[in-house]
Amino acid sequence: DVCEALNVTVSPGPTVRYSEGDNATLYCHISQKRKTDNLLAVRWVFAASPTQEYLMIKMTKFGSVQYYGNYTHNFHKQRLHLLKDKHGTIYKFLILSLQQTDQGHYICKVQEIGKHRNKWTAWSNGTAATEIRVISSKSSDDSTFKKNHEAWKFFEDLYVYAVFVCSIGIISVLLFTLVILCQSLLNKRRSTVKHYLVKCPQN
């Protein structure tokens, strides 16, 4: 049982989109049952391309966090955080204030470590990945402007249509009123005509 690969999954995925400046949260789930005495070492690797991988951050089997390469700089230490839940089955990786250079694949590599003859030995491994795509603020603004422009255009068309319908309604009411007025005047004129009774000689 110990030799089997760990069941590791990363969420959200397989692709997640963020706007530039947003904070990203990635979860590494370890669902494979392991020995109670064994510990886990979790690494997050960044791959800008399939041929370039960079180890970013690691949580050792004892729970301490270590940074690697360019990510040892204080600027990156403030942006990157690796935490685990109390059950030790979910590891949360935080990336604060995303930049265009953060776009790429993020790989969670988990190693199960146990003691064998008083020596720490790696028993099994598991790997899962997700892709982060960072939308630039300029593209986001252009997209927002385009959506607002389309919305205003729709309301402008709706306004013109409403004015047209109201105009037809007003003209119809005026014509109806004019017809009623003409009929009233005509009936009034007819009512004022005098009628005379004339006696014929034969009667």
TrEMBL record:
Q: Which PROSITE patterns match?
A: IG_LIKE (PS50835)
Q: Which keywords describe this protein according to UniProt?
A: Cell membrane, Disulfide bond, Glycoprotein, Immunoglobulin domain, Membrane, Secreted, Signal, Transmembrane, Transmembrane helix
Which residues span the membrane?
158-181
Keyword Membrane listed? The answer is yes
Residue ranges of domain Ig-like in the record = 6-136
| Compartment(s) | Cell membrane; Secreted
Primary location: membrane
**Membrane topology term:** Single-pass type I membrane protein
Q: Does Hydrolase count among this protein's keywords?
A: no
Task: Give me the Gene Ontology terms describing cellular component.
Answer: extracellular region; plasma membrane
Q: What function does this protein fulfil?
A: Peptide Lv enhances L-type voltage-gated calcium channel (L-VGCC) currents in retinal photoreceptors.
Q: By what name is this protein known?
A: V-set and transmembrane domain-containing protein 4
Annotated source species: Cariama cristata (Red-legged seriema)
